Amino acid sequence: MSQPVVHITKLNLKYRHKPVLMDLNWTINRNENWLLCGTSGSGKTSLAKAMAGIGHSYSNIEINFNPQSSLPAIAYYVANWFQFKDLEGQSNFYYQQRYNKQSTETTATVKAELESFGKKHSLSIHEVDRVLAALGFSELKDSTLIQLSSGEHKKLQLVKALWLKPQLLILDLPYNGLDVLSRKNLNALLEEISEAGTQLILISNEAELPGCINRIATIEEGKLVEISADERTWNDIEASDKPVPTFLSESVVNASSAEIIRMINVNISYGEKQVLKNINWEVKAGEKWVLHGHNGSGKSTLLSLICGDHPQAYANDFHLFGNKRGSGESIWEIKERIGLISPELHWYFDPSATVWQSIVSGFYDSSGLFCDPGYSKKAKTDELIHYFGLDEYKNTLMNELPLGKQRLALLARTIVKNPELLILDEPCQGLDQQQTLHFNKLVDELCKNGTTLIYVGHFESQIPGCIEKRILLENGEVKSVETLLESVL
Amino acid sequence: MSNYFNTLPLREKLNQLGVCDFMDSSEFLDGVNALKGKKLVIVGCGAQGLNQGLNLRDSGLNVAYTLRKEAIEGKRDSWKNATENNFTVGTYEELIPTADVVINLTPDKQHTAVVTAIMPLMKQGATLLYSHGFNIVEEGMQIRKDITVIMVAPKCPGSEVRAEYVRGFGVPTLIAVHPENDPEGKGLAQAKAYCVGTGGHRAGVLKSSFVAEVKSDLMGEQTILCGLLQTGSILSFDKMIEKGIDAGYASKLVQYGVEVITEALKHGGVSGMMDRLSNVAKVKAFEISEELKDIMRPLFQKHQDDIMSGEFSRTMMEDWAAGDKNLLAWRAATGETAFEKTPAGDVKIGEQEYFDNYTLMVAFVRAGVELAFETMVQAGIKPESAYYESLHETPLIANTIARKKLFEMNRVISDTAEYGCYLFDYACKPLLADFMTKVDTDLVGKNFNEGKDGSVDNRTLIAINEALRSHEVEIVGARLRKAMTAMKSIKTA
Prior knowledge:
Chain A is of the alpha/beta class. Chain A contains 13 helices and 19 strands. In chain B, strand 5, helix 7 (111-118) and strand 6 (127-130) form a beta-alpha-beta unit.
């Protein structure tokens, strides 16, 4: 047998001064494709970055590339987070800047970005088209980077990796934000490149995986533990028995109006490109909706209208909480009634705020805290921190926490003021199975008190039980609106 | 028209220079009510115009844009900015007559022409809003007596004004009411409401006067903010090349160094910045910055004197009349400096390395901030105003240098600031010639601590710390920074 592809001996690694990997050993042989799963914060991302040599190279990680292979001899890491820069090399973007027309032309186009990536790695530009088509990305070639949604950014990262076909490919939460079809196509592409010699390491907690995955491991107490497929527990997770804080479970939400949203023939376009076409949609107080649609179908634009984040709201016939948009209300009066979580909100959130400040800022709808909240808000925040199990991270900065923990803090922020409208746009991205189940139970509990809910989630397994209505978008149009009979309420 | 400030008796000059009140947040409890339902018309739709307008509309106010006919017919960028964000756009004739508040956000140079064109169209009792007082104070523009004249000046670039607003905050803002034009006494209430509309009330508002704003703004931008940063950057780069430091490294150190160094200034003032140095380096930086202050003091005073007497604006307006002859020549020359033409090398420079290897810039910044502040206060400007126009804005300007060197800085700042910057730079470099012959690579280009044992005399260090911390800019700054909570840190490449 040839030497192992990856040989890790006694790796010790700290994450912000806290040991996460302790004397970890791992051997990856040829033709093995691994899945790394397990709880948030166990050290999966730290391990992956160390293997790709990001930030620091470790002498106890030995990678033996195949000199006979025509594939690039690199360990390529696709991060769980995306980064991009403007034409001046800065990455100083702000929340919802992509809807501000003047600011969209300062970043490169997808096409230019791909060309520069191809040049750097000496790749043929012709080979990328097939990957683009498979992930439904071809039409976005002329879009600028800032215009892309988070799901589209994720796809762009994947396109690059699949085009590059490195000898070792490490994918950290690759399914985040991808719709069902794209996930399926991604798995097919992964199987294909694995066939052609790329070895995979997949970090994910999803059920649907490419068929080529043949070994599974978790990290427990800093060490790698191999498990069998059966040991990936799906159904027998016990939800936390902590009671929901009473300020949330016992207070009835009073809707400001019987009609929360009324859109009549709403249109949004950027130059020639129409993103929303003749949208008609009514949401009544207390209804629980799921919003479905492929990546790029217009979901995030639709939600940005509701959250007061889109400048074109002023040019449409559109009522929110009983008032016509543009009739003298401020966006802060709108945001006051909404609890929002979205990939965008997370991406642009102030990384230098502590967990506690981040959660309290939910009362003010700000990114980071700018004032003294007073006793009752502080007390509610502390209760919620305990409920989410974040006590030990209370004073930790957001950017010092792994993605899953950051997300938990932002979920607490979303509900802390017990808003009359909850907008949960892929709320459980980055969470593990148990956390997802836990959060959806909480959503069900909250929604018993009259809260109106709009939920976006690509994974059926992640949708809370209280959903009763569904709106489906396709290419910017409402494809269908239906009442779900089998609602489990 | 004659210089308004020079028409005032000394008593009134001092009175207006001395308007300076850091406002309590309770003064903004009335929100945008003073402007609710009123028709706001913005003249010009550049970065400030567009972003302020987006914020005002999102605060529930009625905003439209007026542009010159040629801009509308030619579908210029300003027209695109406004229409693509679904604002109403019209000519002066179409929109000004019904406007309750006309907001002039055009460049200084155009003010006289713009205001002369719109004033006859404005309705009785309307309000004219400026974001800079040059036209009123230096050019002496006379506004019809029924019109209220106010100023609201966000102290940040337009994109920041928007970015901070959408995250639920705002940028520090300066407001003023022109005492010659407040016939109904509504000026202050409207200026405050405008501040709430742009989010400025959440970040600290300084009530000033047209006079104090102009005289301090001109002084700050000419000396510490743009002038000295330009002089210091060019001299530092040239010194490193002379001493054989790699050109790519030198270019990167200078381009990004000033941003990293002034980031410490933003959070902790001059002493916070100096505390980033080792003790030996701090002692050295203190000594040479004392020397720099002595060398440059007469130049800072000359700039302040020329600003106060109106001499500066007179000569600049002569250059306007000559088709910007000097400005364009100086701009071209700045584009040709070795620093500007040498691209930043592909080397990694750690955050602390920018302090250790660029001690000279720390000394320049300390000398410039303190000198500008001291000179302004001696001239009758209040410490809070002087703080805003010196220390507070330095990191913002440094950020533009990090983006694309001095060319970018001079492109982003106003033409007025750019003109003053070159004026200072050309006078300052010869003044520092002798000083620079003594500077070696330990101060710029290499780690100052290298080869030194790091020991210092306790009493010397204590005296230096005391001198830094007890300076008035630090005392005022500590108070103002507390009010400007949660300042966002600038990201560095």
